[in-house]
Design brief:
With 207 residues, this protein is mainly α. It has one domain. The longest helix has 45 residues.
C-alpha cells in the first residue's frame, strides 16, 4: 500500500528528486556543478525545514550540512574531490538531515567505486590496458632524468571515469525510498488513530 501523499512529502520528493537529477545531468555534460544550482537549493532546504519541522528541522539541516559538506570538504582539501561535489552534498544534506546524508555518502561511494571498476575494465578491453592506464591512472611517460610533474586538481578531475553527482543521485533515490516509511510524517499519516484519541475529549461516563 502506497503512503498518503502529504504536502510535506510531495515537496520533499519533488525538490530532492529534481535537484539530484539536475546535478547528475550537469555533471555528465560539463563535469561541474554550478553555484546557481546548489545555492538556491540550500536556501530552499532551510525554508522547507523551518516551514514543516520548525526547530527540529533546523537541527536536522545543520546535522545534514555538517555531514555532507564537512566530510567532502576534507577530501577537497587533500585534493581528492571537487568543490562542486562539496556544495552538492552540503545543499542535499540540508534536506536529508544527518542520518540520511551519511547513508547517501556511503552508498554513493560504493556506487562510484563499482562504476569506476566497470568503466576501467571496459576501456581496458576495448582500448588496451596501457592506454587505459595512461588515461585513468595518470602514469604517462616521463623523460629520462626528470621527475614527473605533480598533477593539479583540474587534471585529476578530467581523469574521472564519471561525475560524482551520478552515484549521489542514485544513492539518494535508493536511500529515500528505503527509509521513506520511517520518516516522522509518514508514521503519523499511517497511524492517525493515536493522535486523534489524544486530541479527543474524554467522554467516558463517570463511575
Amino acid at each position: 500500500m502506497l503512503p498518503e501523499l502529504s504536502v510535506q512529502l510531495i515537496v520533499f520528493l519533488v525538490c530532492v528528486g529534481a535537484y539530484t537529477l539536475a546535478a547528475a545531468i550537469w555533471d555528465i555534460r560539463v563535469k561541474r556543478i554550478p553555484n546557481k544550482l546548489t545555492l538556491p537549493v540550500f536556501g530552499l532546504g532551510l525554508v522547507y525545514q523551518v516551514a514543516f519541522n520548525q526547530v527540529d528541522g533546523l537541527l536536522a539541516a545543520g546535522a545534514g550540512f555538517a555531514a555532507g559538506f564537512g566530510l567532502l570538504f576534507v577530501l577537497w582539501m587533500i585534493g581528492s574531490g571537487g568543490g562542486g561535489d562539496v556544495k552538492l552534498m552540503g545543499a542535499l544534506g540540508v534536506w536529508l538531515g544527518g542520518k540520511l546524508t551519511l547513508m547517501v555518502l556511503v552508498g554513493s561511494t560504493g556506487l562510484a567505486a563499482l562504476g569506476t571498476f566497470f568503466v576501467i575494465v571496459f576501456k581496458a578491453m576495448t582500448h588496451g590496458v596501457w592506454a587505459s592506464k595512461d588515461r585513468y591512472l595518470g602514469t604517462g611517460k616521463v623523460d629520462a632524468g626528470k621527475k614527473p610533474k605533480k598533477e593539479t586538481l583540474e587534471q585529476k578531475m578530467k581523469r574521472r571515469t564519471m561525475g560524482y553527482a551520478v552515484p549521489v543521485a542514485l544513492a539518494t533515490w535508493l536511500v529515500v525510498m528505503w527509509q521513506l516509511p520511517k520518516f516522522p510524517w509518514m508514521k503519523a499519516a499511517a497511524d492517525p488513530q493515536p493522535v486523534a484519541a489524544a486530541l479527543a475529549p474524554d467522554t467516558a461516563p463517570a463511575n
